[in-house]
Amino acid sequence: MSCARAPSLQARLSLVLTVLIAVLMSVGAAVWMRETRQAIHEEVEAATRVAQQWLVVVLAEQREGDAQVRERLLGRLAAVGRIRANRLEVFGAGGERLYVSPESPYKAGRDAPAWFAAHVAPELGARRLDAGALEVVLTPDTSRAVLDAWDHLVAALGWACALLLALWLATRLAIRRALAPLQEIHAALEHGACGRFDQRLPQYATRELALLARSYNRLADSLDESRATNARLEADQSVARTIQARLEQERRAIARELHDELGQSITAVRSIAGAILQRSAEQPGIHGSAQAILAMTGHMQDGVHAILQRLRRDAPAAHERIEDTLQAYCALWASHHEGIELRCEIEPLGEARDEPLDDSVGLALLRVLQESLTNVARHAHARTVQVRVGLRRKGGRAEIEVEVRDDGRGLGAQPTPGRHGLAGMRERLAELHGRLELHSPPAGGLCVRARLPHPAPVTQ
After folding, report:
1. What global pTM score does this model have?
2. Which residues pair with 397 in a beta bridge?
3. Which of 52-56, 108-112, 192-196, 346-350 has the lowest mean pLDDT?
4. What is the three-state SS of the chain?
């Protein structure tokens, strides 16, 4: 194949980008259709279950009525009309259909293409309910949800085609501009092939072309500068490796000290508390205190373990969602303080692409919750405590809010702001640009509220 007939570099790059984008779009479409099918299944199945439960209650009431069960049932169903995402039919003893719910007015007269519905619509069976002499059939109807999915797909494909066209044009223009200096390099090489080396190439912005220009120019000062630069880089890397090695040694030493000294001390305290627990079954006060000591030393061991994991990052473990961690701690706290009713409400924190929050943010949230609940147990004499964790949006920003509210003795019974627990919370939050608020609600008790800026953009 001659050079004139060989495809240009610009054409090859455009072809590679086009194939890559097509593959990504195909994979994305397959994943989207699978997730859409699952979402439609869950949505319609939930609606069908609710409708079925309602019908069971209605049919049970009708069986307890007089002889006009049939008329009352049909009248009540007709008054309700269409049940969301379901078709309702009533058949007599002979199989004749006595009632059918009206069609959905939502996007009436339209349906998704059959091939699309075959791929997206889940298979859901009809539910048959016995109503004495009548039979009620509840059939899930996924056509409206499938039509919504089709409309979303059409709109997304339109935007995708427009974006693809714009991307193709932008890529073509960028490649053309990036490869334009090749003509100048070709002319310089042809000039040099004739034995004339007086022409010099400029320094291009593109790294690869700049390397070609420096190779062609063969200037001694450029070679010297390159050698000096490489020497400086090697020296800097050597210093960086030395510092990193020393830091790793210090971290390992700290980790060993924590494990050997603090870890063994905690284990000893747990052993003593376990012995007390076994020998104080007939002494409720001592038995409960021993249980509390075991629980708190367990928390201390978990904290030491977390610190050791952060100090030894050779093989990081998979991150746990902070919502699960907070929920688990609330459950553990409630099991050790059965005299206090704990209501825990933890909302999703809007983590992007299912990635967990930063370790520092998650640790701050956990420490605020632990300190707040510890103060409630020690000082508040409360009967109930409510924990709420969620996102609060204000303007274009989002904050993570942790609120612990109790009905105890109020702010006067809690530790003063100068105590170590609250001071530690304030300092930890301040490092992450957060804040801590304490106030007494009109109904009494104390409300501790901590707010932290969300570390990533959160969609509305």
Report:
1. 0.37
2. 394
3. 192-196
4. CCCCCCCCHHHHHHHHHHHHHHHHHHHHHHHHHHHHHHHHHHHHHHHHHHHHHHHHHHHHHHHCCCCCHHHHHHHHHHHHCCCCCEEEEEECCCCCEEEECCCCCCCCCCCCCHHHHHHHCCCCCCEEEEECCEEEEEEECCHHHHHHHHHHHHHHHHHHHHHHHHHHHHHHHHHHHHHCHHHHHHHHHHHHHCCCCCCCCCCCCCHHHHHHHHHHHCCHHHHHHHHHHHHHHHHHHHHHHHHHHHHHHHHHHHHHHHHHHHHHHHHHHHHHHHHHHHHCCCCHHHHHHHHHHHHHHHHHHHHHHHHHHHHCCCCCCCCCCHHHHHHHHHHHHHHHCCCCEEEEEECCCCCHHHCCCCHHHHHHHHHHHHHHHHHHHHHHCCCEEEEEEEEEEECCEEEEEEEEEECCCCHHHCCCCCCHHHHHHHHHHHHCCCEEEEECCCCCCEEEEEEEECCCCCCC
Reference 259, options 304, 199, 228; nearest CA is 304
382-391: pLDDT as tens digits: 899 999 999 8
Pairing type for strands 384-394 and 435-439 reads unpaired
- 110-123, pLDDT tens digit by residue? 888 888 888 888 88
**Looking at domain 322-453, does it have CATH number 3.90.780.10?**
no
Euclidean distance between CA atoms 52 and 22, whole angstroms: 44
Contact indicator for 119, 37 with CB cutoff of 8 Å: yes
Given this model, what pLDDT does residue 404 score?
94
Count other Cβ atoms within 10 Å, centred on residue 86.
23
Sorted by sequence, the CB contacts under 8 Å of residue 409 that are 6+ apart come out as: 379, 380, 381, 382, 445
Residue 153 has which token pair?
């797909």
Specify whether the CB–CB gap between 104 and 140 falls below 8 A: no
Residues sharing a CB contact under 8 Å with residue 389, sequence separation 6 or more, in sequence order:
323, 326, 345, 346, 347, 349, 365, 369, 400, 401, 402, 403
From the list 256, 361, 272, the residue with the least C-alpha distance to 304 is: 256
Structure tokens at 233: 């880089």
In angstroms, rounded to a whole number, what is the distance separating the alpha carbons of residues 11 and 438? Answer: 65
Give the domain ranges of the chain. Answer: 9-172, 181-217, 250-311, 322-453
CA separation for the pair 244, 218 (Å, rounded) = 38
Sheet holding 97-100, edge to edge: 97-100, 86-91, 134-140, 127-131
445: tokens are 């008790």
